[in-house]
Amino acid sequence: MALWKILVLFFGAFSGGMSVFLFKGDNHKNLKLVLSFSGAYLFGITVLHLIPDAYHGNDNYVGVFILIGFLFQIVLEQFSEGIEHGHMHKPNHEHVAFPLGILISLCIHAFLEGMPLAEGHQNQLVWGIALHHIPAAFALATVLLTNKLSKGKTISFVVLFAIMAPAGYFLSNALSTGGIGNLQQYFNRIMGVVIGIFLHISTTILFESSSDHKFTVRKLVAVLVGVGLALVGFLSEL
What we know:
Blueprint: H1 3-18, H2 29-54, H3 62-80, H4 100-114, H5 123-146, H6 151-177, H7 187-208, H8 217-236
Helix pairs in contact: 1-5, 1-6, 2-5, 2-7, 2-8, 3-4, 3-7, 4-5, 4-6, 5-6
């Protein structure tokens, strides 16, 4: 098991959550740029790297699992309210309660994303997940603070979210190497679910992270840089 993957996954989400204490107010223009960059990068590695790899084993059911992942993400967002792609919603002033559905759905989402990493060669996916979790953790921490949770509890729940992707990676690695089961035969289907999730999230980010679905110059540059890095990573492996 690669320690660097665990550290990148954990500190990507953790740093995103902790940055909420550095940025005040509702104007998060830089966050929108990070969202655009991460969405473009996720879309790039999904199309260039993940989809071809998933179909490499000639499994005719991979497409079915991509659809399952896409639809499952839609279901998760009924509870998470779109925090996976950086959406932050203010609570109803008449009812301020702990956002349990948001936390649980976000943790399930992160856990599933970490599972395919046990395959060992998905380095671009590690960085893609870490980048994607930065704005997600920022949005989670914002929602927790807005719901009147203390700073200490907010940090604790951000840590919980940050360990979910490494936990998914750890479990899948244990299954594939510990004799509990052979993850290899299911890897392409698990990856199909993750691909479906990524397709939903990345396209949502790209088309909803700006008003009226228009690309500003800054957003266009962020998108081109994200796609460009994914393309460079793809070409370097040929």
